[in-house]
Design a protein that fits this description.
five-stranded mixed sheet; three-stranded antiparallel sheet; 461 residues; alpha+beta; 16 helices
Length: 461
Amino acid sequence: MNARLIKVWQDLQSSYYFIPGLMAVGSIALAYLTIHLDEQYGLKVSEFGFFLSNKADGARTILATIAGSMMGVAATTFSITMVAVTSAAGQYGPRLIGNFMRDRGNQVTLGTFTSTFIYCLLILRVARTGDSGTGENMVAEFVPNISLLTAMGLTLTSVGVLIYFIHHVPETLNVGNITGRVGRRLRNDIESLYPRDLGEQNKDKDVDLSQFSLSDAKDIRSNAEGYIQTVNEDALLDLANEHDAVVKIEYRPGDFVTQNDVLVRIWRDEELDEDAQQKYRNAYAMGQDRTAHQNILFLADELVEILARALSPGVNDPFTAINCINWFQSAMKAFLRGNMPSPFRRDEDGALRVIAYPINFERFASVLCDQSRAYIATDRNTTLKMMTILTELAAQTDSEPEKTILIEHLKKLKIASLEACKSSPDSDDIEARFQRALRMTTDTDYFRHEQSSQRWIGGRG
């Protein structure tokens, strides 16, 4: 599939109108179904007298009342949603607007009200009072009681959805829920990209990259600019197999590309015509902003942004920052547990076709730690918390390169926090925590003892 089609599908799923649109189509189908049932079978008033009407005028009044009230409630809920989005964007960062627009609760709420309105409108047109004429020109009275009963059911459902929405909006603005949704999605995306059961690792370390010199590569350059939102790697693999070539991906989702930048480099004996080059370009889809699709660094940046705003002088909320740090730990732990996929993708015959380097732990830890260090170092509580998670991650990993990276971030945080700290007791606490942390990362028995003691993290044992 063309990457642009994938991008369109992702945009549709994350849009505010996709679910309401589907529900509106469903209400149209439901209206025609119930009208057909009314024409074929109908219901007698004596069977459901409390809910039905024996006159078309009464049915039309009920349907018109429901339709008018549904549109008023839909407009109110949409206004509330916009106020919530504006408030969240100003407080937690504009990049979180998409999270609120993608919220299924808000979408279903709007879809319920608009669908009920459309349904009642369609039923209203077939409810007729009839006339006193005779013969072929006589118009018989038609009271769609099955449809009316369905409209009453949709109305009761809408009332329940309205109660849910009133409860749901404050929940969506709770900063703990906001960071939780971002952090949980980040962890799930990492587990999907770096699964534990990947199998044999680093089996392609013996690939001789010297045979792929830049001077021999044929460059496919971008004819557009913007943020890369989707890369269809399967399409690139198929194209490389079709052209008997090796393709190296130079940009990943989330990177900004300007015109004439090299998207992919191709090693192939023959030149590629313009149509073939365009097929490679079609494997990329670009947009005006970054998205979370295929891009775990975007979600990491969102957590850092929430933390930075929480520790700004105007907000000064260290406990929200600590909540973000807890999700830092969840994401990095998922990264350390997973297996790094090989950058070399082969076809069914085992021939190397695509070179695509994944985001490694060093890059990921830098996004979380380096970008947030300047803010964390200004607060004693968040500094100690960040030291805690870095220590535990370093002590629990069996990979020496990753452990070295975590210890380096621990040292950088200590230096930055001591420079920013203006209180001698706080400086002493930070220095003591750092010295204990260094010993815990190298002495397993000491780590277990300290972790279960009352001194570590305010008393966990």
